[in-house]
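Margin note from the TA: students keep mixing up input and output lines. Inputs are the sequences; the output is the structure of the whole complex. Example:
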Amino acid sequence: MADQALQTVPLDALHRSLGARMVDFAGYDMPVQYDGIIAEHLHCRAQASLFDVSHMGQAVLEGPDAAAALERVVTGDIRGLKPGRQRYTLLMNAQGGIVDDLMVANLGDRLLLVLNAGRKIVDVAHIRAHLPATVSLTPHFDRALIALQGPEAGAVLAALAPDAAAMRFMDARETSVSGIAVTITRSGYTGEDGFEIGLPAAEAETLARALLADPRVKPAGLGARDSLRLEAGLPLYGNDIDETRDPISAGLGFAIGKTRKMGWDFLGGDAVRAVHDAGPGERLVGLRAEGRAPVRAGAELRDAAGQPAGRVTSGTFGPSVNGPIALGYVRADCAADGSTLTAGLRGRDIGMIVAPLPFVPHRYHR
Amino acid sequence: MTETRFSKDHEWVRLDGDVATVGITDHAQSALGDVVFVELPEAGRHVDAGEACAVVESVKAASDVYAPLSGTMTEANGALADEPGMVNAQAESGAWFFRMTLDDRAAFDALLTADDYQAFLATL
């Protein structure tokens, strides 16, 4: 992508007016921070934060038996997904690897997919290759997506969209906010209560300004989004999961529907079933590092005997945890909570302890 | 008398007699963002100018700090271990990183003056 011009999001001018520092993320010029990552992170946990995630790909799947068609390539029970509900699922390749992790919402007459920015082009081609002629997948990548996250998010949004207050975690609906037609899901990527609001690009700044007018809401960038999701134990595609990692090793077995575990009739299902039955050789686990220095992606892990035990895939300083935290794949025999490992950091060994996830309890509105 | 000079690696150096006190500039702390950890050199270590001798960790990334001049470490600022956020709040005052005796006093005069450093920043 380096030789291509960065794409801009619909709120680009707003970000700049708010003093954002912009960075290239997945080919988009995105705000990484405004006031500072720690302040933005802590504000989200305390009140409510507005994130622009318009780089993510929204797409609509429609046609007779669209749910059954999607089930060919994803792990989730999509046919059993009721209208007005959303589900986290995994798009699979034939080898049992994860092509992307995505949200699927049943809007009644169609399914709404939300895809990772860096994967959305690949995803659309991959899904289309497995669709019958009667089912169509239409990208709406020009639409904006605004996340409002934090314990005050429900109260903030209720003032603009009274019917949003009745939504529960993973509900999805079409409604209007400040007179703008939107899709709303009560979900997010922070571990907090919150919403993701999809809407036409031309309306995005109006809605963002309406939300920011509430004194409880502050903007937050991708930096805080990353530290929030890591504290919440949520994997980041490209770091913690990719086409070489299967759902079982990644600790995402919950994203395989109960009915799907009877047939394993999704792309790559046989390979995933084999890992499920035999047990994975490595597991994605939470790790806490001793001391204060963050241990970052790429750090090699060793067991007590000094043998290779795995590798860190995401690592940062958790502002709410007030210490360094990480995710990494470790050998299955070292993956139990409390297992002690070491990570090499600038020529020194740093003690690492396998820790339960999430690092910070989820506070969803169930 | 004391005098403060700057490096193109965004360190400031204050010379008191033959002891140089070194920290990172306000520009550097702003570019790094929230500092969460600082690793400092041991006293007694000899470093060459340009040698990586300390590390600043922000939430996002680790960055090396380079010795602006050749010399021997005499003291590190232990307060930064307990309160790394001082680097953001007081980059050019309380949050000094280390002190060193210089191999060559004349090398100090070759560093940038405050005006030169500001002019250098304007080119970035």
